[in-house]
Amino acid sequence: MGGRNKAFLRLEDRYFLDWIINTLSNACCDLILATREPYLYSEWDLKIVEDIFKVRSPLTGLHAGLVNMLADYAFCTSCDTPLLKKEIVQVLIDEIEPGYDVIVPVSDTYYQPMCAVYSKKCIPFIEKQLNLGDLKADHLYEKIKLKEIPYERFEAIDPDLKSFFNVNTPEDIYSAGRLLKRTEQIKV
């Protein structure tokens, strides 16, 4: 998206960030927004924390969120997933159990690292990985105790798996709008 801040892209009449906040406020207790530019989000009523690592990667936001949270586990997502469903979040939260560091949706070997639950135990592994310049979130999974939840588990709640749809191009915004309308037509 040419470096545009996806939190401020619009789907219908709302920012992507508003879609995500609405979903998560219905599924989670405390919300933390991790960002490199906290001043941009002053109008939102949520805890905003600044990335500790300055490199541009989803891992930096994940790290800042984990460092600043009080709970042992957190659901984590990115600002480019406006179609995320609270039921998907709830399934992942319900799978939390001691001994696992990450609970993540998986299809064969493809993970959804920005639609997953992470433990604070991941912090030192993320720090080491970022210090080495390894910015791939799923590389973390080789170092921690991972619980994989197959896509099939989510298809009953989200048949199109639109919760995993992230917007990377202008065409994706159009596709997200079509997916949203199709969901609304099914409800009627």
Structural commentary:
Helix 2 (58-68) packs antiparallel against helix 4 (123-131). This protein has a single domain, classed as Spore Coat Polysaccharide Biosynthesis Protein SpsA, Chain A. The longest helix has 18 residues, at 170-187. It is globular and about 40 Å long. A hairpin with a 2-residue loop joins strand 6 and strand 7. It has helices spanning 16-25, 58-68, 86-94, 123-131, 152-155, 170-187, and strands spanning 10-11, 14-15, 32-35, 47-50, 73-77, 102-107, 110-111, 115-119, 146-150. It has six helices and nine strands. Helices cover 32% and strands 19% of the residues. By secondary structure, the protein is of the alpha/beta class. Strands 5, 6, 7, 8 and 9 form a five-stranded mixed beta sheet that branches. It has a two-stranded antiparallel sheet with strand order 1-2. A two-stranded parallel ribbon has the order 3-4.
Beta-strand content: 15-25%
Major beta sheet, specifics? 5 strands, mixed
Q: Specify the helix fraction band.
A: 25-40%
Which H/E pattern describes the elements? Answer: EEHEEHEHEEEHEHH
* Mean pLDDT, all residues: 89
User: How many strands in all?
Assistant: 9
CATH class: Alpha Beta
Alpha carbon gap, first and last residue = 33 Å
Structurally, the number of domains stands at 1
Helix/strand layout:
Layout: E1 10-11, E2 14-15, H1 16-25, E3 32-35, E4 47-50, H2 58-68, E5 73-77, H3 86-94, E6 102-107, E7 110-111, E8 115-119, H4 123-131, E9 146-150, H5 152-155, H6 170-187
Parallel strand pairs: 3-4, 6-9
Antiparallel strand pairs: 1-2, 5-8, 6-7, 6-8
